[in-house]
Specification:
Layout (H helix, E strand, L loop, with lengths): L8 E4 L2 E2 L2 E2 L1 H17 L3 E7 L5 H7 L4 E6 L8 H15 L3 E5 L2 H14 L3 E5 L1 E4 L5 E7 L4 E5 L7 E5 L16 E4 L30 E5 L9 H10 L3 E4 L1 H5 L20 E5 L5 H4 L7 E6 L12 E4 L2 H17 L1
Parallel strand pairs: 1-4, 1-6, 4-5, 5-12, 6-11, 7-11, 13-14, 13-15, 15-16, 16-17
Antiparallel strand pairs: 2-3, 8-9, 9-10
Helix pairs in contact: 3-4, 5-8
The chain binds flavin-adenine dinucleotide.
The site of flavin-adenine dinucleotide has 29 residues, from helix 6, helix 7, strand 16 and helix 8.
Length: about 325
């Protein structure tokens, strides 16, 4: 089999309780963009007990084709079962690219599939492109997040990557798109080593930072925990969520679930307000795609200003209450 025999950009469709995860729609949108360059078409892979209307949703969001495998053994996500099904599908159809979300499911599944297929896998990508030779350029933070590294997989297929959520934008839902749904009848083996008894949702207070449209981030420049009150007041006035940089998690002021950055969450809100944040690359990669970036820092040389749309040079202790007051006034007018 020649490398050129492998064709197609595949996206593993993640779903829970009959709902496709946002990361899948983000990957379909990016796959579509890549397919415009290599003309290989976008295929979503859906493994489920009952596909329901999920196959059509995948076509509506950028899939040219959906390959569906249905089985009672796919009632719950189980890594070994899914990896075997994916191996069989890849053996049959030979895609050139296979993409997963860098989510707990994708990070669990992709390496198992990679090992079975004896190919390469780039984890935690922040960007994808196609080079002049048709190879997938996989960009990810490396060396402690200090550089962005471009990785190629020139000699094995498929080229595999996991991609962070909220890096790519979703396509608008299309009405009656062209495309086909293929029901694949391959045998699905049960995985009986363990049984899933129940799912317990991880509880967070308020809106999750990855879902909030407005996020106010506190960094190490915030010198005392008492000052968080004024930052929380600003977030409340903006109807936004609070997030933090890693030093505030390390100091145990806040839970890691609200940390932004390379070892935290990637977020893409409409507005982000950075307060006392220097703009280290490991932080920036988690929020640089936000639509509007406002930063408050006492140092005019802080690197965060180079990626900000609006910057305020000054002490947050003075600026934040003034800002909150102004927003309050504007709201009451
Ligand atoms: C492998 C690895 C992964 C990492 N992952 C992450 C990650 O996911 N997220 C993350 O955040 N970091 C991460 N880091 C750490 C990262 O390198 C930085 O150390 C961290 O982002 C710095 O946080 P900061 O900007 O809050 O603090 P600092 O860099 O200390 O910046 C504080 C800023 O506050 C300003 N300031 C001080 N006083 C005031 C004041 N009164 N008013 C206004 N401004 C003021 C200062 O001028 C300064 O710019 C990681 C590092 C490594 C090696």
């Amino acid at each position: 089999m020649q490398l050129t025999d492998y064709k197609g950009i595949w996206v593993f469709a993640e779903h829970r309780n009959g709902r496709i995860s946002d990361i899948t729609f983000e990957l379909l949108a990016k796959a579509k963009e890549l397919s415009d360059k290599n003309d290989e078409g976008v295929v979503a892979i859906l493994l489920a007990r009952d596909a329901g209307d999920m196959s059509q949703k995948l076509l509506n969001r950028g899939g040219d084709r959906v390959i569906v495998v249905e089985s009672d053994h796919l009632k719950e996500y189980k890594a070994i079962t899914c990896a075997k099904v994916l191996e069989a599908l890849v053996d049959k159809y030979r895609p050139s690219i296979l993409l997963f979300g860098a989510t707990s499911m994708g990070k669990d599944l992709a390496p198992r599939v990679m090992a079975k297929l004896r190919t390469g896998l780039t984890a935690d990508c922040m960007d994808l492109d196609i080079d002049g030779d048709g190879l997938l350029i996989q960009t990810k933070p490396s060396y402690g997040g200090n550089i962005m590294c471009k990785i190629l997989c020139p000699t094995r297929r498929p080229q595999m990557a996991t991609i962070r959520p909220k890096v790519f934008s979703q396509l608008e839902e299309m009405e009656n798109p062209k495309g086909e749904i293929v029901i694949e009848n391959i045998s699905v083996e049960p995985e009986n080593d363990y049984e899933i008894l129940e799912h317990v949702a991880y509880e967070t207070e308020g809106v999750k930072i990855e879902e909030a449209e407005i996020v106010v981030v506190a960094g190490r420049g915030v010198s005392s925990k008492d000052d968080m009150k004024m930052i929380e007041d600003l977030a409340k006035e903006l109807h936004g969520a609070i997030a933090v940089t890693r030093p505030l998690v390390d100091a145990e002021w806040y839970d890691p679930s609200i940390q932004v950055g390379a070892s935290g969450k990637t977020i893409k809100p409409k507005l982000i307000v950075n307060i006392g944040v220097s703009g280290a690359i490991q932080y920036n990669v988690g929020m640089q795609n936000a639509k509007n970036i406002v930063s408050i820092n006492k140092s005019p040389k802080a690197p965060i200003f180079s990626i900000s749309h609006y910057g305020i040079v000054g002490d947050y202790k003075r600026i934040v209450p003034l800002l909150t007051e102004e927003i309050k006034k504007t709201r009451s007018q």
